[in-house]
Design goal:
The strands form three sheets. The chain has a six-stranded mixed sheet, with helices on both faces. It is 42% helix and 17% strand. By secondary structure, it is an alpha/beta fold. Helix 9 (165-173) packs across helix 15. A hairpin with a 5-residue loop joins strand 9 (329-335) and strand 10. The chain folds into two domains: 3-130, 3-Layer(aba) Sandwich (Rossmann fold); 136-412, no CATH class.
């Protein structure tokens, strides 16, 4: 699948930001399609393309940042801009001199918000948009309607075909355009392993000056086997001769290049017995499966492994759809000390809360809604709806504010 043939959900938001912001940054993991999107959007606007992965271009920019910016054309795409942090002050000066909307379109494979000097230098001048790997609804050319349906409680009772082995194939394939273009699953896994090596050797170095990066690939591989679990630093530190603080710092670096995501706990003043530990999620299930050597067939046989990866898969799809929506959403998990939990809690604004529980099974019982009912009680009037996603055939109501919904509705719509 060629990335340029797949319309990206984020494109309208990028165009809208260029219409009113002097600087627009598209950031996300390496090879997720940032450059393709930037060039596609910039093509009609006459943008010139400059990449800082080019050693000579990067050297020129670092030698004289202000002079480099002054010589740039009226509209320009600056690719992998995190590799030349010195450039941001020059961009700020140019924007302050002439505040023209859409002047700079930047891309970055590291989260610039984790580098305060960079983020602060363009505060109020830069719109920041997150591009994820491909969502399932992008791959299927479907409109992303699930989140709107979730908050409206709009799920029609209907039948669907079970995903079965197709589900594990989607999980193992992940969402990176170049990986999906590989002809075999083995070549796809090899591509993901190479991607991790590249991100750690290039992008992590842009965020940190740590001398040895040898621990990071092994730590990421270990973290991939803990995806969708509560973060336990002691478990992650066990195989390494490193302090807990060093493990925390390494996790932050991996999160900074979008390979990991820490899902914070959801809080409520109504309940004091909430677990306040974040959950650990891999940024893409394709990367997670490649690091663990897991194929689609292996996932079918190992249900205990499938559960966590399926939860991460659903989490990714929801976040990817939400990133392209003008309605901001925040994501959490819910767990109390009595072990009632909800895999994914979504907040819209300050008034609406919804819950999503994820199951690999083909059936749902009232027992599967216990955590959702606890969330309903904790959020009170703010509670919009609760859904159990499962690999079944029917959309089924469970009372007034709850439904069991087939997993394919995530991208095909309810």
């Amino acid at each position: 699948m060629a990335a340029e043939l797949i319309p990206r959900l984020l494109a309208p938001l990028v165009k809208g930001a260029l219409a009113d912001s002097p600087v627009v940054l598209i950031h996300g993991p390496r090879q997720c399609g940032k450059t393709t999107l930037a060039r596609m959007v910039g093509e009609s606007g006459g943008y010139r393309y400059v990449s800082f992965d080019d050693d000579s271009v990067r050297a020129a920019a670092m030698a004289d940042p202000s002079g480099f910016v002054a010589e740039l054309p009226r509209r320009v795409i600056l690719d992998e801009v995190q590799r030349v942090p010195e450039l941001f002050t020059g961009i700020k000066a140019e924007v302050d001199r002439q505040r023209t909307p859409g002047r700079f379109l930047l891309t970055g494979s590291a989260n610039v918000l984790l580098v305060p000097a960079l983020a602060d230098s363009l505060a109020g001048r830069m719109a920041i948009l997150r591009l994820h790997p491909l969502a399932q609804c992008e791959l299927e050319r479907c409109e992303p309607r699930f989140l709107d349906a979730l908050f409206a409680g709009r799920f029609r009772t209907k039948l669907a075909t079970r995903l079965g082995s197709e589900l594990t194939e989607r999980i193992a394939a992940g969402g990176y355009p170049e990986a999906l273009a590989r002809r075999t699953a083995a070549r796809c896994r090899a591509w993901y392993r190479d991607l991790v090596e590249t991100q750690i050797q290039r992008d992590v170095r842009d965020l940190s000056r740590i001398r040895s990066l040898d621990t990071l690939p092994r730590l990421l591989a270990l973290a991939s086997s803990h995806t969708a679990a509560l973060l336990n630093v002691s478990d992650l530190a066990g195989p390494f001769q490193l302090s807990r603080q060093t493990i925390h710092d390494h996790l932050a670096l991996l999160e900074g290049v979008f390979l990991l995501h820490r899902l914070p706990p959801w809080y409520s003043n109504r309940l004091s017995r909430l677990v306040k530990t974040p959950k650990l999620h891999m940024g893409d299930t394709g990367v997670a499966c490649a690091l663990q050597g897991l194929s689609s067939a292996t996932l079918l046989d190992r249900r205990e492994v499938l559960g966590g990866l399926l939860e991460t898969f659903a989490m990714q799809e929801l976040r990817r759809q939400a990133a392209a929506s003008e309605e901001p959403s925040e994501f959490f998990h819910y767990r109390d000390r009595d072990r009632y939990e909800v895999d994914i809690v979504v907040e819209r604004g300050s008034h609406s809360v919804a819950g999503v529980e994820v199951k690999a099974a083909a059936s749902v019982s009232t027992r599967d809604l216990r955590g959702l009912r606890k969330l309903q009680k904790a959020s009170g009037d703010r509670f919009a709806h609760g859904v159990v996603l499962y690999d079944g055939e029917a959309t089924i109501p469970f009372g007034e504010q709850f439904h069991a919904v087939p997993l394919r509705a995530l991208w095909e719509g309810p």
